[in-house]
Design brief:
Shape: elongated
Order of helices and strands: HHHHHHHHHHHEEEH
Radius of gyration: 23 Å
Strand content: 5-15%
Strand order of the largest sheet: 1-2-3
Length: 246
């Protein structure tokens, strides 16, 4: 094993905060088929580990949702799980952990930007889960997954999961202001813009390829604005409380 690969394995273990007893599992997990094909010696690549990791990940997330939301119906839990283990979700987690930096790719795949493609990052995350499972069992694999998913699970709003942004925003405004938001939409440069108003006050602006898409975007931005204000108020309160004890 050359020094460059040794360094990649070392840095990858630091990034995922897990030290392998058998580093061959990690090497297999970060090796893409194109790299193995170009290697002078025979190498294992990550497709089999990806297959295993997919099932291990599904079990870990299903177990968490089953125990955490013990009154929710299986149909809703299935939708939530599908979202959590989707390509986009796994790719985003891989980006947060900078896992793409450790992927061993063939020259052609490297030059075409494969290192940071969502499908590559999805496969890589699943392969690493499979590798940890083989190295030390379901307990450590679960620990790694829970840490990686910490932010997503903390922000998971299962009660509103089946609702779109417009529905969530409308219910929120009706509860707080006893009125409904009004959308004013119009065409703009082959796109649509939508302004959402609450009590005649412009709350947010959305853009989309259709009127519906623009209104959904406006509702999403309105909810993000509310979240930002709420976080700011929360931080100010915490800051004032801290000063009392100084």
């Amino acid at each position: 094993m050359n020094n460059n690969v040794e360094e990649i394995l070392y840095n990858c273990q630091k990034a995922i905060k897990y030290e392998f007893k058998n580093r061959d599992y990690l090497l297999e997990a970060i090796t893409h088929r194109t790299y193995a094909n170009e290697s002078k010696k025979k190498m294992k690549y990550n497709q089999r580990l990806e297959f295993l990791g997919d099932s291990v990940l599904s079990l870990i997330i299903s177990d968490y949702l089953f125990k955490k939301y013990n009154t929710s119906k299986e149909g809703l839990l299935s939708k939530v799980k599908s979202s959590l283990v989707s390509q986009k979700s796994l790719a985003n987690i891989s980006k947060e952990l900078k896992l793409g930096d450790f992927l061993l790719l063939g020259h052609g795949e490297e030059t075409s930007g494969g290192r940071y493609r969502d499908n590559m990052l999805e496969d890589l995350f699943e392969a690493i889960v499979g590798a940890i499972y083989l190295d030390s069992g379901i307990g450590n694999a679960s620990q790694f997954v829970m840490k990686a998913y910490n932010k997503k699970l903390k922000n998971l709003d299962i009660d509103n999961f089946d609702k779109d942004y417009k529905t969530i925003f409308q219910e929120l405004i009706q509860k707080k202001h006893k009125t409904s938001p009004i959308y004013k939409s119009y065409e703009y440069q082959e796109m649509f813009k939508s302004e959402v108003y609450v009590n005649d006050k412009n709350f947010a602006l959305g853009i989309g390829k259709s009127k519906k898409e623009a209104e959904t975007d406006a509702a999403k931005k309105a909810l993000e604005k509310i979240e930002m204000v709420s976080n700011s108020i929360r931080k100010n309160k915490q800051s004032k409380q801290n000063k009392k004890y100084l």
